[in-house]
Amino acid sequence: MSRVHVLGDWGTTHLRLYRVEDGRVTDRLDGPGALSADPAGILAARLAQWQEQGPLEDVVLCGMAGAKGALVDAGYVTCPARRDDWLAGPTRTTVAGLPVTVLAGVCGHMGGVVPDVMRGEETQIFGAIALQPELGEGRHLIVLPGTHCKWVEVTDGVLTGFRTHPTGELFALLTGHSTLTGPDTDGEGRFEDGFARGLERAGEPLTGALFEARAARLLDGRSKAWSHGYLSALLIGGEVVAEANAGASVVLIGDGKIVDLYEKALPLSAAVAQRIDGEAAVLAGLALATGVKA
Fold first, then answer.
1. Of the candidates 141, 135, 132, which has an alpha carbon nearest to the alpha carbon of residue 160?
2. Phi and psi of 35, rounded to 5°?
3. What is the pLDDT of residues 215-248, one digit of tens each?
4. Where does the source fall among the domains of life (predicted)?
């Protein structure tokens, strides 16, 4: 008889559930973020759809599902964190009659001073190492773009330190709740054109560089899309200049356009990028907690 597990990546804004039967993903369901009202009800409603097809073995979740105020407080493993340390401390609960395991996040005071936390990215990192064992040897700089981008140092498979840049959140605030991109009027220039200009100024003092997004619309007839690209490049380029040493080898874990933009920015530091699919990495990381390959 087939064994069916449910693996899930439940972030701040989005839920991704995967039905895994005999080690193969057979279906996917999406949903709202982990900090929504009644997270247990949200999860139960989706599990019910699959329970109609037959019994489910268990559920394993990572990400903001384990945050305070979400499904259950799953706590943190302190950095430096080994895979076995991380897997040793899950929190368990029950939803829709099924055992649910929520994996811990990782926390620490970087440099012994600066507090930082992650939830979900550690699953992708350990999953990437499972997919590419060579990442478990030597030192690697791993970058996970997103709302809160993580720059992570991994040495011999141990997560030894990281720094968070809330770049995605800042971009959303600047483009959605400021005057910097101007009114919804016509103008010239694509997002890509603005991004190229932003890379030219990346690394300058940020507050001084930001205002070109608005001034270029007023004086140079730039479009709103151009301004969006410009702001994106300032923020992402600023990360790269701050974090990537000249000639560094960087592992990018993620999907879609956002990872494409980081690849375009990395040459600012002459960094070389390797790319790993974010979904494949998170599924491999979640599978570590079940012993079942997905």
1. 141
2. -95, 10
3. 999 999 999 999 999 999 999 999 999 999 888 8
4. Bacteria
**Residue 190, amino acid:** R
124 DSSP assignment: H
- Distance between CA atoms of 249 and 139, rounded to whole angstroms? 10
| Domain ranges across the chain | 1-77+88-104, 120-294
The two structure tokens encoding residue 210:
């930001």
Please provide the CATH number assigned to the domain covering 1-77+88-104.
3.30.420.300
d(CA 13, CA 35) in angstroms, rounded, equals 8
> What would the pLDDT profile of 150-205 be if each residue is shown by its tens digit?
999 999 999 999 999 999 999 999 999 999 999 989 999 999 999 999 999 999 99
Among 3.30.310.50, 3.30.420.310, 3.40.50.1000, 3.40.50.720, name the CATH number for the domain at 120-294. 3.30.420.310
Evaluate if residue 292 carries a pLDDT over 80.
no
> 């037959």: which residue's tokens?
54
Q: Do domains 1-77+88-104 and 120-294 have the same CATH topology?
A: yes
The answer to whether the beta carbons of residues 89 and 75 sit under 8 Å apart is yes
The string of DSSP codes covering 167-200 is HHHHHHHHHHSSSTT--S---B--HHHHHHHHHH
Question: How many C-beta atoms surround the C-beta of residue 137 within 10 A?
Answer: 11
- Residue pair 128/276 in contact (Cβ under 8 Å)? The answer is yes
Pairing of strands 105-110, 114-118: antiparallel
Cα-Cα end-to-end distance for the chain = 18
